[in-house]
Specification:
2 copies of one chain form a homodimer.
Chain A: H1 2-11, E1 13-14, E2 20-21, E3 29-30, H2 32-46, E4 53-57, H3 62-72, E5 76-82, E6 91-98, E7 103-110, E8 119-127, H4 131-143, E9 146-156, H5 161-167, E10 172-180, E11 186-187, H6 189-195
Parallel strand pairs in A: 4-5, 4-8, 8-9, 9-10
Antiparallel strand pairs in A: 1-2, 5-7, 6-7, 10-11
Chain lengths: 196, 196
């Protein structure tokens, strides 16, 4: 997605070979028009999947998840993150380890909002080690619903989350795939070719 | 706003005389089409205020904030909540006490995203005691920018946040004002009249 990649090129800040900061348009300040385009692109890529619900995770997944859901004309549910969770009956939960922060959070979704016959599109802002996406997959499975696809705004392809999810058979669509942050942002060539 | 009030009537769950749960369309599951309407309504009410930025707070403020920002064609910034915050130079911070949870959170916004000449529209999902909104006001003031208005999706008018903010001279626009939760949801009569 060219607009997104241009935005990453011009406004993304590479803090280390592992860390890209995009808090001027995605993680803290949000560019609503870009998010509308991101939502349209996700809807376009998954339009044949009969999506009935979008599932994302607070806080940075909400904007792209909402815009995708608006285009697909389905509700969006966001999983909540908590350090530890007292056991509550009506919650679907999963543990998500963050390698960056070196902490494990419980994520949860009320079981009212995922039904057995739902076809769920999982949306998140970043894909790195895939732990958040896998946690969301676990929650969908626990509900009896089906994961119809996974949509990612920015995939760091040099980390293993993308392969992990694709090897499990999930359709993962990432709107920008970064192959390296060494000496600036490098995008995966295949994506360049496909979207030009 | 009639659509919103109907949604509250039909899907809101009154848990006590103080607590209304709207997690089927606003706080956990989100109705994207309703949020688009909410965004349009905020934009319409504040269109003459020369808004340059929307400020909201994670997580439930993001959806209505994003949609208002999309309509107003300005960026949206969401404040982050943390239990305690190590002092960081480039953050604007405020303390927000939650009476419901009986805990105090630090909220913060990077000083990069609020400028002296910004005219800021503060958006939040709920207004009860007004502590979150006041925290956001503090952050705007600390940045040197101006609060151009406060837009609230659901105001619990029987709590004192609305009066507190209006007495301070802020223009507060709430799309649904609830006068009481005793025996079901009661809306303020003036709002009924104005919007029918």
């Amino acid at each position: 997605m060219k607009t997104l990649k241009d935005k990453i090129r011009f406004e993304g800040r590479v803090l280390s070979s592992q860390v890209l900061k995009v808090d001027s348009f995605l993680n803290h300040q949000i560019d609503p028009r870009l998010m509308a385009e991101v939502g349209k692109e996700f809807a376009n890529r998954f339009k044949k999947e009969n999506i009935t619900k979008v599932l994302t995770i607070e806080s940075s997944g909400i904007a792209p998840g909402l815009m995708a859901a608006l285009e697909l004309e389905v509700p969006v549910v966001f999983a909540r993150k908590r350090k530890s969770l007292t056991l509550v009956n009506d919650l679907l939960t999963a543990s998500v380890h963050s390698f960056t922060k070196n902490e494990t959070n419980e994520i949860s979704v009320s079981n009212q909002f995922l039904m057995q016959d739902d076809r769920v599109l999982i949306i998140d802002d970043f894909l790195a080690n895939g732990q958040a996406a896998l946690g969301l997959v676990d929650i969908v499975k626990a509900s009896g619903a089906e994961v119809a696809g996974i949509g990612i705004v920015i995939e760091k392809s040099f980390q293993n989350g993308g392969s992990l999810l694709r090897e499990k058979g999930f359709r993962v669509e990432s709107l920008a795939r970064i192959s390296s942050l060494e000496g600036g942002v490098q995008f995966l060539a295949e994506v360049e070719a496909a979207l030009l």
